[in-house]
Every structure is written in C-alpha cells, then in structure tokens.
Amino acid sequence: MLERILKSILRNKLVWGEGFVEALAIISGSLLFTPLKNANIIGVILLIICIIFSCKNKKSLSRTISQGKRDKTRNKTLINNINNLFEIADDQDQPLKFYENLITHSLEPILKRLEFLHDPLVRVSLYCHSKDKFILLYRHSDDPEFKKKGRAFYPDNEGVIGAAYHKNKCYIENLPDPNNDEKGWIEAQMSSKVGRMKTKASVTNLTMKSRNIFALPIRRGHQKHMIIVFESLSPTQLKERKISKVLNDDLGINLREDLDMYREYIGPSFEDTTKLGM
Fold it and tell me: How far apart are CA 168 and CA 15, in angstroms?
C-alpha cells in the first residue's frame, strides 16, 4: 500500500517544487524499507509531509488552470486586435479603423453573451463625454434604421444619458407603447423618470422609440468618461442584474481597457468629430 502511495505521488508531482517533493518521496521510501532503528517512523513522517506538499501543489495547479481559462478569452481578443493592426498598418490615412475594430471585437462578445448581437429589438450605444456633453462613439443594432446616428451632441444633463452620468445608472421599463399611446410615451420621455428631455422635438426626433432602457457609466479611474446605453422595444427585456454582471466580468474588463486606449487616441482633438463616427 505504501509503495503504491509513493508511486502515485511521484507520478503526479508538479513542475514547480517537484524536486523537493520527489526528494522527500525517495528518502521516505528508502527509510520505510530499511532495518535501521526508528527509520520506518521517520519514513512515515516524511511520507506524510510529501503528501501534504503534493496536495498543496495540486491546489495551486487548480488555481493556475482557472486563471488560464479566464485569460483565454482575453488572449484571443489580443490576437485578433494585433491581426487587425497589421492589416491596416499600411493605411496611414485611416488610423481610426484599428480602434473601431478594437471596440467592435471587445463589445461583440458581450452582446453575444447577452443574446443581443442579432436581436432586432435591441440597440446598444456608446457615448463619450467631453466638457458638458456626450458624443456618440459607437452604435450596434441588427436593425439598420436603429443603427443610424441621431444628434451630433447630447447634453450631459438630459435624458437617460444625463441620468446615468449624474446618478451612476438609469433603468426604466414598461414605458407606454408608442404605437398605441404615442402621447403617453412622449410624456414619459419628458418626465423625470427618464432623466427629463428638455423639448418635445428632442423626443420626437429619437430614432428608436424604446420601452425598456438601461444606461450606466464606464469609468476611467474615478472619471465617468463614457456611457453605455441598452435599449429595447420590448417593455421588460433588459435584465439589469444580468447586464451589470457581464459588464463586470472579464469581457467587461476587456472593453474598458480598449475604450481607454481609444480615449487616449482621441486625446485633445476629441472635439473634432471627424475622428469619431463608428
């Protein structure tokens, strides 16, 4: 039995610390089968120590494997981003293309996990903050009409964007159906419930008449430098807890890192909207 345990330890030893574990195993094995006085007892003690170290190493391996799995998605994203960079390296007139691809490759896995990537009822928009306003940075929708840009600038004290910026989040559901109650829907948009739009024209010019909205800031350190807005034509499709969880996991970390790089690229010329427009 002791011989089988010893062989098992030697067979399953790990790369780090393996010399120490192997040495203990060999010494304990030698002492177990030697006729010297008290040698067997010492051998058993060393064998126990060997088993303890082996178990600890296995736990470390388990943690390493878990970390490796978490890094797998990030590594794939980095490889894709590097490939995209090489593809456009010769195109000096379009440096923005790399950052467009960067954000697209970071955001699409999030939308896929949330099952929004090909959902025609959902739209996702990213807005970047500058001074006292937001500028549309990126927009995704499976419906081409909803993907169109709206206004050039959005005040940071209006609507769901302003509410998310000042209150850390804005979640609204069960807004009136604009097809059956357009007046009620417009009134709801102009109420404090959705951050209060200042004019009726601002409401009627919205390209998507959403009934369920979730907006929250993306931080750069302590600064809320961007707002991400999820919208749905369905009254209760967006699940606040689920979306928040995905944005806080590894995919969300990837997105924030890429948005940081994009913001550094924009730099002081952020007011030049020709550098935006994804």
Answer: 47
